[in-house]
Amino acid sequence: MQTVSIELGDRSYPIHIGSDLIGQRGLLAESVRNRAMVVTNETIAPLYLDKTLASLGNIPSSSVILPDGESFKNLDELNKIFSALLSENFDRNCTLIALGGGVIGDMTGYAAASYQRGVDFIQVPTTLLAQVDSSVGGKTAVNHALGKNMIGAFHQPISVIADMSTLVTLDDRELRAGLAEVIKYGFIIDADFFKWLEDNMGALLSRDALATATAVKRSCEIKARVVEADEREHGIRALLNLGHTFGHAIEAAMGYGHWLHGEAVSAGIAMAMDISRRLKLIDHDTEARGLRLLEKAGLPITPPTEMTADLFLRYMARDKKVLSGNIRLILLDGIGQAHVSQDFDHSALHATLAHFCD
Ligand code: NAD
Ligand code: GLY
Q1: Which terminus of the chain is less hemmed in, N or C, by CB atoms within 10 Å?
Q2: In this structure, what CATH number is given to the domain that contains residue 333?
């Protein structure tokens, strides 16, 4: 087991990464104060719920099983977590355990942020995407029909237990979607990691254990350093949203769940590269290199044909990065370098949208 620490003063926590961690007695139980509520979904429950409950040993614990899918990441389903907690008289010393991918992690985190004004929660991410991104950093949310992740809070977990053995049951499409967020770190911050990904994409796609562990650990280290520097996203943390302004528009406009989050982010990164090249921040060769890696990972580099420029603009206007009515984009300055901008030439954005949507 390897541990990456995230230092946030009295909200610091460990990110444990390794194999067979769920079954390791004590690891999960050591952070639970009195009672635990495991939140999971109907796909993950038959695979890992019994093991998780068993590893809690004598700690009184219950579970709530939600339907599976991004389309259920909403206030109605969130309410089921509150109903389970209230009907079983869980008090404010309880600990919620998010057993699942980013959907379960984001929902459980938001339930923990708001139940009795805030209780502890532990992230047990079971998708690659959740292990490299969503379980770390304390962003929690549910979707609204009008916008992705629009109802939420910052609430850090008290620990993250990334059991890589769970990835054996993850299907290939979900694995590839997780790789989009891994590649993102190379694009925005770490050119060496980008090169490593170019050299090791085959190993990652064939689920080589060492390559996967390296990618998960490096991703968590990068995310931990960014969150430590800017927990509430007043500056550098916004870079983690490379491709997300376009991607969130795709997810919401297509109907949640049709395009996976990672797939939408990948197409969004391709669009962010296009506009960065039009603004002369990167050259054709850099753009081509970026597209090659996304394609090598089996990810889309164009948005769905249903997306029009108007649809993009309508959803992008509601993005959380919009400030005072201005769309802010993450633009690339090269491989491993990016910045946030709101005063870019909007004709470049319109040209990008026309290029991808016409
Ligand atoms: P997901 O949670 O929907 O999981 C993907 C699918 O895999 C689901 O069907 C799930 O049931 C299944 N699954 C999960 N673990 C499995 C396993 N081990 N074996 C078999 N099947 C398994 O999707 P995701 O890609 O993990 O997360 C996407 C969500 O994360 C989006 O809602 C996105 O907005 C959010 N997100 C949040 C952050 C953040 O910082 N909070 C960052 C990135 C993404
Ligand atoms: N996934 C974006 C962030 O955590 O800030």
Answers
A1: C
A2: 1.20.1090.10
Q: Are residues 211 and 149 in the same domain?
A: no
pLDDT for the residue numbered 148 = 85
Give residue 324's pLDDT.
66
Regarding whether 161 and 31 lie in a shared domain, the answer is yes
3-state secondary structure of 100: strand
As to burial, measured by CB atoms within 10 angstroms (0-12 exposed, 13-18 middle, 19+ buried), residue 49 is: middle
Residues marked as catalytic:
117, 139, 181, 223, 233, 237, 241, 244, 248, 261
Taking the chain (358 residues) in runs of 10, the rounded mean pLDDT of each run is 97 96 90 94 98 95 97 97 98 97 98 98 98 98 90 97 97 98 98 98 96 97 98 95 95 90 98 98 98 98 97 86 79 97 92 95
What is the spatial distance between Cα 105 and Cα 111, in angstroms, rounded to a whole number? Answer: 10
Same domain, 62 and 130: yes
From the CA of 226, give the closest atom in ligand 2.
5
Measured distance CA(241)–CA(328) in Å, rounded: 11
Torsion over CA of 15, 19, 21 and 22, rounded to 10 degrees?
A: 120
Q: Are residues 141 and 152 in the same domain?
A: yes
pLDDT at residue 321, rounded to an integer:
67
The confidence score (pLDDT) of residue 327 equals 87
Query: Which residue's C-alpha comes closest to atom 2 of ligand 1?
Result: 101
Q: For residue 31, which of 82, 88, 93 has the smallest C-alpha distance?
A: 93
The number of folded domains in the chain is 2
Residue 339 belongs to domain spanning: 172-357
Query: Which residues, judged by CB distance below 6 Å to any ligand atom, belong to the binding site of ligand 1?
Result: 41, 43-44, 47, 68, 70, 73, 100-104, 106, 126-127, 129-130, 133-134, 137, 139, 149, 166, 169-170, 174, 177, 261-262
Distance CA 322, CA 341 (A): 11
Last residue in a domain, options 169, 193, 215: 169
Rounded Cα gap, residues 76 and 226, in angstroms = 32
Which domain-ending residue is among 147, 169, 191? 169
Do residue 201 and residue 344 come from a single domain?
Answer: yes
